[in-house]
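User: Sequence in, structure out. Go.
Assistant: Echoing your sequence, followed by the structure tokens.
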Amino acid sequence: MEYAKIGFIGCGTHSTNNLYPMLKYARCRLMAVCDKDKALAERNARIFGGQAVYTDAGTMLDSEALDGVMIVGPPQMHYDLGRKVLERGIPLFVEKPPAGNLASARELADLAAERDTIFMVGFMKRFALTYKRIRDFAAQGRFDPSCGFFRYMHWANTNLEPMLLFMAIHPIDLAISFFGEVAEVASATYNSGRALCLAVTLRFASGKWAQLMLGCHGPRIQEHVEISGVMDGKDGCFVVDDIIQMELHTAGRSGVDLTPSLPEIAPTFDLDDIKVWRPDFGLPNMGQNSPFLCGYAGEIREFVDAILDKRQPTPGGEECLEAMRVIDAILKKPDGTTKLSS
């Protein structure tokens, strides 16, 4: 089997817990680990099989013949070090957000295009098993989504910009993964002084739409998604709670009785109206494993496979910027409507 030689920059808590462990599920070898804190780089190299340790990214890039580089850290680090990677024509993966603002993220995408290389952002929810399954149905022509509702609550915050860049970017990109290019953004905010709430309606180029209810009230992250449309010729709705449980509701009899008089009513109970999928945690297996359920394994596989297959990943290039375009529009007009140019 062919393997891609990967260099990894950043050894913080998130990357160490959620991304490094996923490398073993992709066709890659961890050739180099880099962090300003040498002890952290040595730790991750030891745990995850890194062949070399660096404290300077430029030195690593000049010393190693790498097929791809992953960068996980603050947005400015993604931009600063991402440029160094792309300038050398090396495929790049950065965690979300790709940069601190739309203009900087666009620089990375444009540089990747100039160097004819890969630029991918780690929107892992696209690769969560439940959401991927819904998109697979759409790709097969079995499901035609028409509208969506996304509720995403997380830890308290009263600052709109970090709320959007670090947390709300997830459901924004997830909506884009179902419906495509955004044509119009309408948003409304409310700040209680303790927490910020944001309502967003996205109108897509297709004419379809999605509503996002975003808030910072929860003691933990809570996620609820509904995608309505036509499934196998029936009106239907997929409902996903906290990524790991999915229901498919299709139009059936559902207890509706159209008999003309009360004495003639004969209630129905159609078990085919609702189908439910959820993990069987009582019997651990890879299909029920959290990194796969949440999408971390899938996003790294996509990056590595794109390198080896010599193709663009999904999301890649311009598609990585779509969520940043929406965030930019909300920041410029938190209470109002903005039409996005194509």
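User: And one key feature?
Assistant: DSSP finds ten helices and 15 strands in the chain.
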